[in-house]
Amino acid sequence: MDERAALTLLGDELAHAGDDAAVVDGQVLTTDMLHETTDFPEGTTRYTAGWRAVGASLSDVAAMGAEATAAVAVYAAPTFDDEALLAFVDGAQDVCERVGARYVGGDLDHHAEFTVATTALGRVPETDGAAERQTAPPVRRSGARPGDVVCVTGTLGRSAAALELFDRGAIERANDLFRFVPRIDAGVALAPHASAMMDSSDGLARSLHQLADASDCGFAIESATVPVDDAVSAAYADESDAAILETALTFGEDFELVFTVAPDALESVRAAVPVDVTVLGEVVESGVTIDGQALPDAGYDHGA
């Protein structure tokens, strides 16, 4: 059973599952697990591992349009090295500080390989109501409507470029690319406008299919609009433009926000969001296409 099948199975049992995070009484809660063999290439510093592991959970909070409040982590390794452990905590603290949250601890365990389980907490913002402050609803995956435009924050492909650089021994630059900034500020700014949203950790193509399934709609995007990070073009300079585009579409682990909004909200969105916003295409009745051709449901798979 692959990850998608497992999630479908659990979704049938858990009525509230299906978004990037759970929402309980206005509090947002999410958890992730990362392993050395699948998530931390050789050369990944413990500082980067702490930043990236906690950042992955903070990204899920961002995708709900929520403010980040705190994070914890389980650090498991064959042995506990004081320098490595403190570097991990430094990375976890710094990524939390970067988005206005706090790293408040966790747990330790011995394990055959370096493994991290992280949990992040957030809260949906309050808005000024007529008589009192009210809690704004979280942004879910299920609100996209035909006629909306579909957009993405930032650029795509940084993690793919990082892996290529890790393989080449360009360790410092690879670690730099691996330390992404969770889009908490963008998510909060998008919350009043977005009809649906999720993060792009599984890749843009797969994210579009997941949004389409949740919202019972389709997407039509154009390849010329896909914001490929300059680092991808540099790392894959010998590859064709088509191969570079494929990498940006499907590699995943970029942790940008993929969202839909009404066309007349675009100006307000661009004014409010503190990072670049790219319009990829539009929401349609059914199907997921790029340049008029079917876009395969391909992307990151934890079960692969």
Brief sketch in words of this structure:
The protein has 304 residues and is of the alpha+beta class.
Largest sheet: 7 strands, mixed
Overall strand count: 14
Strand order of the largest sheet: 9-11-8-12-10-13-14
Radius of gyration (Å): 19 Å
> How many angstroms does the end-to-end distance come to?
10 Å
* Number of individual domains: 2
Return the CATH topology of the largest domain.
Answer: Phosphoribosyl-aminoimidazole Synthetase, Chain A, domain 2
- Taking all residues together, what is the mean pLDDT? 92
- The structural class is alpha+beta
In CATH, the architecture of the largest domain is Alpha-Beta Complex
Features:
304 residues, 5-stranded mixed β-sheet, 11 helices, globular
What does this entry look like structurally?
The protein has 304 residues and is an alpha+beta fold. The chain has two domains: 21-135, PurM-like, N-terminal domain (60s Ribosomal Protein L30, Chain: A, 2-Layer Sandwich); 149-294, Phosphoribosyl-aminoimidazole Synthetase, Chain A, domain 2. Helix content is 37%, strand content 26%. It has eleven helices and 14 strands. The protein has helices at 3-13, 36-39, 46-63, 82-98, 158-168, 171-178, 184-190, 204-215, 230-235, 241-250, 266-272; strands at 22-24, 27-35, 67-77, 102-110, 115-123, 126-128, 133-135, 149-153, 196-199, 218-221, 257-261, 277-284, 288-290, 293-294. The chain has a seven-stranded mixed sheet, with helices on both faces. Strands 1-2-5-3-4 form a five-stranded mixed sheet. Strands 6-7 form a two-stranded antiparallel ribbon. β6 (126-128) and β7 (133-135) form a beta hairpin. The longest helix is centred in the first third of the chain and has 18 residues, at 46-63. The protein starts with a helix and ends in a 10-residue tail after the last strand. Mg(2+) 3 binds at residues 20, 60, 199. Keywords: ATP-binding, Kinase, Magnesium, Metal-binding, Nucleotide-binding, Thiamine biosynthesis, Transferase. ATP binds at residues 106-107, 141, 201. Mg(2+) 5 binds at residue 202. Residues 125-144 are annotated as: Disordered.
